[in-house]
Amino acid sequence: MYVKLTVGDEYAEQNLEIELGAGSIFTKCPECGKEFSVDPIEWAHDFPEFNWENMPVCDDCSNKVG
């Protein structure tokens, strides 16, 4: 699996393909902004009702007491 991007301007364009694999997928915590890696297979297993609006939080924020 990979992400495909086209970058450039009116003079030149370049297609980029970025492989997706364990350790190469990251997100930012919606609570504190910390960047951390995620495993989409584990994430989908842990959150079967997944949608792109519900982003995972980092371990520090998930361990905070309400």
* Sheet with the most strands, sense and barrel status: 2 strands, antiparallel
> Which runs of at least 5 residues are low in confidence (pLDDT < 50)?
none
Task: Give the strand order, joined by hyphens, for the main sheet.
Answer: 1-2
Morphology: elongated
Radius of gyration: 16 Å
What is the strand tally? 4
Measured as a percent range, the helix fraction is 10-25%
Average pLDDT, to the nearest integer?
A: 85
Distance from N terminus to C terminus (CA atoms, Å) equals: 38 Å
Structural class computed from helices and strand pairing: alpha+beta
Question: Which percent band covers the strand fraction?
Answer: 25-35%
Helices and strands, in order, run as: EEEEHH
The number of helices is 2
Overview features:
elongated; 66 residues; two-stranded antiparallel ribbon; 17% helix; 2 helices
TL;DR?
With 66 residues, the protein is of the alpha+beta class. It contains two helices and four strands, in the order E-E-E-E-H-H. The strands form two sheets. A two-stranded antiparallel ribbon has the order 1-2. The chain has a two-stranded antiparallel ribbon with strand order 3-4.
